[in-house]
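Sharing in case it's useful to others searching the archive later.

Someone asked me privately for the predicted structure of Putative MFS family arabinose efflux permease, so I'm posting the question and my answer publicly. Question first, with the sequence:
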Amino acid sequence: MSSASTAPPAVGYAAVFAVREFRTVFAAHLLSLLGIVVGEIALSVLVYRLTGSPMLTALTFALGFLPYVVGGTLLSGTADRYPARRVLVVCDLVCAGAAATMALPATPIAGLLALRCVLAAVAPVFGGTRAATLGDILGEGELFVLGRSLIRIVSQGAQLAGFAAGGVLLTVASPREVLVATVVGFLGSAALLRFGTRRRPARTGTGGALVKSSLSGARQLFADRRIRALLLLSWVPPFLLVAPEALAAPYADAIGVGPVGLGLLMCGMPVGSIVGEMLAGSVLSARGRERITLPVAAVTLLPFLAYAFRPTLGWALLAVALAGTGMAYTLGLDQWFIAAVPEELRGRAMTLQTAGMMTIQGLGMALAGVAAEFAPVHGVVAGVGLLGTAAVVVVVRLVVRSAA
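And my answer, the predicted structure tokens:
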């Protein structure tokens, strides 16, 4: 029986934290996430110090996105064919081993980049399995939606805290020493999940090849018109929302605000996302969140039109933060998605959704950079606001038709 059956009937984030098993998953996520963010900074600094190459340093970050599509497509079957707790713990231990190897002085540049790929390939399997497990822990209703929202909120907050912590640690320790924090984060997460969550059976049998099972699951998901439309709605807005972040450095330079202004611009989107999700999760009912899903998704990119006027730092920050609040649409989307996906495909669906999200955000950053080679930065962001809104409206119409 799901733990949601004993959860208090109250609506809101407090009801989610009342579920003991969720508190364990939440703490494990926070530990591993802080380790990952700190490790990313340390690894990029390490690669730059060893090579002096901006290209290889940028590649270090890019490798955090690209292998997602491999892990999410070819390994997604792992989330359904093995017990979830085992998958989560093994993923944490694999990542801890990879991070520990990175921290060794003898590990060469090629090894560092290869291990970065390992971390990125494992991440969607872990994320998808955890998301599916939330359905087991919290049920498939409102608690699940709020639980996923809390995971996203802490992800945004941990990025801000992790970047700051990483910068401080690098002033007193070497990059390889700082990488040890990543190892500790993964090991702590593994221990919490192993001893703080219940063992649940696999959703499907273990017969057949893993890759074949993963690809078969992806085909089944994309063949369903409703699921396909909801996946597009979960991917297209984030693909476009990354444009101001990807171009924050050149825009800060163009308006002459320096490093402090750049830092503020980078914080705008995650802060806006946190505010939007918390308001939707705390103030609105489950029905209210579903009602705002499509309208909010349709208009979330409109604040980018302010960039057409080459706004000052304050107005640019406001536009980016306001667009970030539009991520509140994901709470209603989560409810529709879990209702549309068959139980036996839930792990693969969540893994595919996670992998697609990260992959398409990396692609969005790259395409924004390419566009800025041929057009002013403010013009690119404004163009994303205009053309992106049209694209999201098309996806919204697909979602409406899929429900008919």
